[in-house]
Amino acid sequence: MSTDYYALLGVSRDATPEDIKKAYRRLARELHPDVNPDPEHQDRFKQVTAAYEVLSDPEKRQMYDLGGDPLGGGRGGFGAGGFDFGDIMDAFFGGAAQRGPRTRARRGQDALIRIQVDLSDAVFGSSRDLTVDTAVACDACQASGMAQGSSLQTCAMCKGRGELQQMQRSFLGQVMTARPCPACQGFGTTIPHPCTECSGDGRVRTRRTLTVQVPPGVDTGTRIQLTGEGEVGPHGGPAGDLFIEVVVRPHDLFERRGDELHCVVTLPMTAAALGTSLQLQTLDGPVDVEIRPGTQSGESVTVRGHGAARLRSSGRGDMHVHLSVQTPTGLDPAQEDLLRQLAGLRDEATVQVSQGTATASGGLFSRLKDAFSSR
Ligand SMILES: [Zn+2]
Ligand SMILES: [Zn+2]
Asked: How far is the CA of 197 from the centre of ligand 2 (A)?
């Protein structure tokens, strides 16, 4: 195979027909002889057009993919064998393949708004009233855009066809092209007396309140889609969708990572050494957490099921309590004496240290850091 049509169009081998059309349209605009008449551009334009001719036709594309040459070697002669001019011209002039007048009704725009929620609302879900600025159908004209008692008028310029046809000379020969009628924007009709409420658009801007259900487990960046709650389209077109993007406010006690919640608890050295029971806050209220004797700084305790809910799934993540053991400071003489006695009893009066890297010592420094730095 001498010519790589995919490479000529700059698309991958699994490109969709839409991708191919887009790629060709872009190249055609750039290389069209009317824009760039020099031989080099014209030559490339011919190659690109040949590539489009093959790849835009499912049968020819398949033949090409199987190693055949659908243009039959007769290069340079376009239009041989069922070459679809319509498609090529559509690609050129950016025209939609539709014929005849187009309808005024179009789908409304999608809208996006961001809401801030507290961590507990994100974890448990909540309901929220929102006020949105949007477009709704105009009551005064029932979305028609016409003043009461008036009606549409057939466009005088295009006689209602919505497009103007034109014979064009191109290197492909004489071709008939159609462009939307500028007098009626392709609608085929005009509105001689627009509705004064909506200026002929068929919709008016308004402020609307709606209630949003925030499902349990949402996180910053989660989008909730409310189908049909966006702006209505002009002239009675269907409404777009409303997307609600969630931003979770930072919490004083907990940092969230996925379904897990993390917090740090500072523990006196004596409690860490002797073990204790702590009452800790969770989003569900207080829970008792056992600290085993001999707990080291940087260790963590897992409180099962007290993390965030799993979005679109069941169950909840865990809460991780990271322990930071505090060395006592500001000892009075009696306390100092007691600690010296303890040191003596533990043969620690002369300090024996074990020296090594952070990794070798079990990641003493890194554990706490790991828990919080990966965000
Ligand atoms: Zn017209
Ligand atoms: Zn109106």
From this structure: 5
